[in-house]
Design brief:
The structure holds 2 protein chains of 2 kinds. By secondary structure, chain A is mainly alpha-helical. In chain A, 71% of the residues lie in helices and 2% in strands. Chain A is built from 12 helices and 2 strands. The longest helix of chain A has 37 residues, at 85-121. Chain B starts with 12 loop residues before the first strand and ends in a 6-residue tail after the last strand. The chains are: A mainly alpha, B alpha/beta.
């Protein structure tokens, strides 16, 4: 009898294959490059940052100013309090790359559970969950954020809660739509005829087969969440002030944007490059998945 | 340009050594190789072959419509003497839809759902003949009359979804003919339709091509249909024409082993599952980029000779004959193959022993409720209506027996399967399986033993397996779920045994469904159904989505396993050819009711229920020696929401007696030993009906 256990597992193979295929999409490769750049920056922030992001060096320094005391050049200048912008952008990458994926994962967990329950069971499960989703979606997102964060206070944890609360209904709709289609497949009927529980069918028979569109959506949504975190920081609803946060940096420099444009432009470029990276990756994934 | 005088004899279409390739990620994939064909006005030629053989690509290449990644790499296509390759895009647009028209498989996808039929039809003369709207409307109306649509005025103003599938296909044909084409390409035009509707469309196509002198290229996988429409036929295999010639020549004197193999796979009226079982062609179609050296059919051929067949590409040879169009065959050993003795047939197998009754269905009813929230429904108090999917069904099945349930789409045959499997519960009546009542017990409430004892094989091979799990994991899950084995090693052992039983290599355990072909997936589904040693298996159209040769292999496999395990098989199908071959007893259904039931021989010979008679006549038979009485049903299937008051078949019945049929439900009359027919016509009159199918006497015999 042939020994099958030694062969590489198919899931590992297919993961390798999808990465290899992504190489065919230039757009996807550029996106991946941008994301990997920021992941690298976030991982090695302590080594890459020339200064302590909270240390006050010399206020209102333009980019390229030589800082005499430490004997270094301030490549991106300093902010109104004299903190090194380069170091703050580098440390800020950490904040974004911790909270954005965390919030997206939480939003997906809630959205998938709700969507599977509504789409697979239909009936009153669907009615109740969809109506709850509709009610949440009918509020402007900003209002939702302000309500949640004003109620619970500004902290990283509450950002995650606010984003989950506001995005889960959208994810639920996608998952519900996919589940409504997949529940009619013969393999679902086959598992019903062998007496599987609803939980098994939802998690093993339906969810894995909905992954394609969900992965693409997750990439786009991750981009939105990064913007959202930026917006929350800008509105003063993000992380409490001294912590380096891209949105917060824009907010603090807002009044001086005309005189010291670098203070706002640099964090803005950081935000948009990372968002762009995720959007390009999503485009690339979609393009590759459409080819045969 | 041709001399106008002999235009009527000049071929409409000449294809010479056409080679078409698709360019994909993995490189060039040749789809059609060295394809030649000449088509005279009014002639109809069939292209037959299994999926992936390149027959649709030929049609697309004729129109030079191959998409971004396809290209004609060699050879030429000449239409009315003009080289298609030399035409500009604008000239091609002028030809497509006017001089060359095409009818596709899915009528609903060929019509724009947001425009009326009239808008879509008048577009053709307005675009191609610069007609004004009134002329165009007149032309369209005339054409709708020509395709035998009732009430053409109403159809003109209807949207596609408001007419039935058969009517939609008639509209598509009308649209194709409106441009007065010289060449009509038909790509599986009836595959998506019911048999009785198909019969009407096929007759229409043959009649119209005679009337308009249009040349037809008819593409299909169904040899029986070809026989009814075409003069000549080309058999394609793996991108090449392997044999071509007159219809009769190909059927009576086939020379290519593939043609012989195909003919051996098709159940005919005289095939017998015990005395002379069908033989499938071993192996499977090679992938286009993995074709073998020499003959493409070599690895599957019984007459393969290594030195002769496996080296160079095989050229088309001409088989000498006295009359008729030339008979070509692409085989290196064609003159060594004798068509009379080479038609494959399996060995005799003893018939199944039939045991005690396993499944009893008694007065089964299944209604679906439809809520109507319109104001009218509220006023008349009819807010809830019922779709009577199954009404008063009574039949039983014994151990080791194959009971077929036949009928067209919408007759409620799949609903029975869902009730038996516990996916739905019955509204009324009783279902007893192994002495337990299961009619109102859902699958979740059944014990593992009960679940394992009654399993199902589904229709669509691409849908029956979870794409995300390996084959081994899916079969293993069933074994554990039914409590056959618990220990991981024992489960694995049993899983490999099941794979072996369905004749799949054991490496398949770690493969994903997408790495398997349709037939292989269906084998896995069979292995899964037999994991719990079932007493009965419900097979809902298990072979109708498969290619001819694969279908033969899968049905033989099911029968072998059934024989070894004494399994009861409930075989649900619309294909009477397969049913006649496979089943011991037949239940004929129409609009949720049983019309006739009895043993296969009883049902397939007089006395017939008039519906069975029409069904039998509609089924194409791939044998020119068989003569059929033609019965084409008028009208469409009535809506299940509003079935006729009396006999459900009364609205379409060619033997309708009168008011009694419209108003009174006929009771079952028993003829002989358990052959039941629900019809008002007296039994002796039904007995006097001539058989639908008769085997012609050979002139030589």
């Amino acid at each position: 009898m042939t020994d099958i256990s030694k062969a590489p597992t198919p899931s590992a193979l297919s993961a390798l294959r999808s990465i290899a295929i992504l190489r065919e999409s230039w757009i996807g490769m550029i996106g991946t490059g941008l994301i990997l750049f920021w992941v690298f920056v976030a991982l090695f922030a302590p080594l890459l940052a020339p200064h302590d992001p909270l240390a006050i060096l010399q206020p209102f320094a333009k980019p390229g100013t030589f800082h005499v005391k430490s004997g270094t050049t301030l490549w991106l200048g300093t902010d109104n309090l004299g903190r090194d912008i380069l170091s703050r952008v580098i440390w800020g990458a950490r904040t974004v790359l911790i909270y954005a994926p965390l919030a997206t994962v939480c939003a997906y967990a809630v959205g998938i559970i709700m969507g599977l329950a509504a789409g697979y069971h239909r009936g009153w499960w669907d009615t109740v969950l969809s109506r709850i989703g509709d009610i949440i979606l009918s509020f402007p997102v900003l209002v939702l954020y302000i309500i949640v964060i004003a109620t619970f206070g500004a902290s990283g944890f509450n950002i995650v809660i606010a984003i989950t609360f506001a995005s889960a209904p959208g994810i639920m709709r996608i998952v519900r739509g996919l589940a409504l289609d997949l529940r009619n497949r013969d393999y679902v009927a086959a598992s019903q005829t062998r007496g599987e529980t609803s939980f098994y069918i939802m998690v093993v028979e339906i969810l894995p087969n909905a992954r394609g569109p969900l992965i693409v959506d997750a990439c786009v949504r991750l981009g939105y969440v990064i913007i959202t975190i930026g917006v929350l920081g800008f509105l003063g609803l993000g992380l409490p002030p001294p912590k380096p946060d891209w949105g917060g940096m824009v907010n603090e420099a807002r009044g001086m944007a005309m005189i010291f444009p670098h203070m706002t432009i640099i964090p803005c470029v950081a935000i948009s490059s990372l968002v762009l990276g995720f959007n390009l990756l999503a485009d690339g994934l979609r393009e590759v998945s459409l080819r045969d | 340009m041709n001399d106008p005088k002999d235009n009527h004899t000049a071929p409409v279409l000449e294809i010479e050594n056409l080679c078409v390739s698709y360019f994909a990620r993995s490189g060039e994939i040749p789809a059609v190789i060295d394809f030649s064909l000449s088509l005279a006005p009014g002639e109809s030629v069939g292209l037959v072959g299994e999926s992936g053989c390149g027959k649709s690509t030929v049609a697309m290449a004729i129109m030079r419509y191959l998409g971004n990644n396809g290209d004609i790499v060699d050879g030429s296509v000449r239409f009315q003497g003009r080289d298609m390759a030399a035409l500009s895009e604008a000239e091609l647009r002028g030809l497509r839809g006017s001089k060359i028209a095409m009818v596709y498989q899915e009528p609903m996808a060929a019509l724009n759902p947001s425009l009326t039929i009239g808008d879509q039809l008048t577009e053709v003369p307005i675009t191609h003949a610069s007609a004004n709207p009134t002329e165009a409307r007149d032309k369209a109306l005339n054409m709708l009359r020509d395709v035998n649509l009732p009430d053409p005025e109403r159809v003109m103003d209807a949207y596609p979804h408001q007419i039935s599938g058969g009517q939609q296909q008639r509209v598509v044909i009308a649209m194709a003919l409106l441009g007065e084409p010289a060449l009509l390409l038909l790509d599986e035009p009836t595959t998506a339709l019911d048999v009785t509707v198909e019969a009407g469309i096929v007759e229409l196509i043959a009649e119209l091509s005679r009337k308009y002198g249009t040349a037809l290229l008819y593409i299909s996988h169904n040899l029986g249909l070809m026989l009814e429409v075409c003069d000549r036929i080309g058999v394609m295999y793996s991108g090449e024409i392997v044999e071509s010639g007159d219809m009769d020549t190909i059927f009576s004197q086939p020379r290519h082993p593939y043609t012989l193999g195909l003919l051996g796979c098709i159940p005919l009226p005289h095939s017998d599952k015990n005395a002379r079982p069908l033989t499938a062609i071993p192996g499977q179609l090679p992938l286009p980029h993995e074709r073998p050296d020499g003959c493409n059919f070599g690895p599957r051929c019984g007459s393969f000779a290594a030195g002769k067949c496996g080296v160079d590409a095989i050229p088309l040879a001409v088989v000498p004959q006295e009359a008729g169009s030339p008979h070509h065959v692409r085989c290196a050993r064609w003159n060594e193959i004798d068509p009379a003795t080479s038609l494959p047939a399996g060995d005799y197998r003893p018939p199944n022993e039939v045991g005690d009754t396993v499944l009893e269905v008694d007065g089964l009813q299944k209604y679906y409720t439809v809520r109507d929230s319109s104001l009218r429904a509220f006023v008349t108090g009819k807010t809830v209506r019922y779709v009577k999917a199954n009404e008063d069904l009574t039949f039983n099945a014994r151990e080791g027996e194959t009971v077929a349930i036949v009928g067209e789409s919408g007759c409620g045959k799949s609903t029975i399967a869902r009730v038996l499997m516990g996916l739905e519960t019955a509204t009324g009546g009783e279902v007893r399986f192994q002495d337990a009542s299961i009619g109102d017990v859902t699958a979740q409430e059944r014990s593992p033993d009960q679940l394992g004892a009654l399993q199902m094989v589904f229709q669509n091979p691409n849908d029956t397996l979870n794409p995300s799990l390996s084959i081994g994991a899916q079969i293993g899950r069933v074994i554990r779920k039914f409590g056959v084995e618990r220990d991981a090693d024992r489960v694995r052992e049993r899983m490999l045994k099941l794979l072996d039983m369905v004749k799949l290599p054991l490496e398949f355990a770690s493969r994903r469904p997408r790495q398997l072909s349709g037939g292989q997936k269906q084998r896995v589904a069979i292995a899964r159904a037999f994991a719990g040693n079932p007493a009965a298996v419900v097979a809902d159209e298990p072979i109708s989505a498969l290619d001819v040769s694969v279908a033969a292999a899968v049905s033989e496999l099911i029968m072998d396993i059934q024989r070894d395990n004494k399994t009861t098989l409930i075989f649900i199908s619309h294909d009477l050819g397969a049913v006649r071959y496979l089943a011991d007893r037949v239940v004929v259904m129409y609009l949720g009711r049983i019309m006739e039931q009895g043993t296969t021989d009883e049902v397939f010979s007089p006395p017939y229920h008039p519906y069975t008679e029409a069904l039998l006549s509609a089924v194409p038979i791939a044998d020119p020696t068989v003569e059929k009485r033609r019965i084409v049903l008028e009208g469409d299937l009535p809506s299940v929401l509003n079935p006729p008051k009396g006999c459900p078949f009364s609205t379409r019945c060619p033997r309708r007696l009168g008011d009694i049929c419209d108003n009174e439900l006929p009771a079952f009359r028993i003829h002989g030993d358990g052959h039941a027919i629900a019809c008002h016509i007296p039994m002796d009159e039904l007995e006097a009906v001539a058989p639908v199918i008769a085997v012609k006497e050979h002139a030589a015999e």
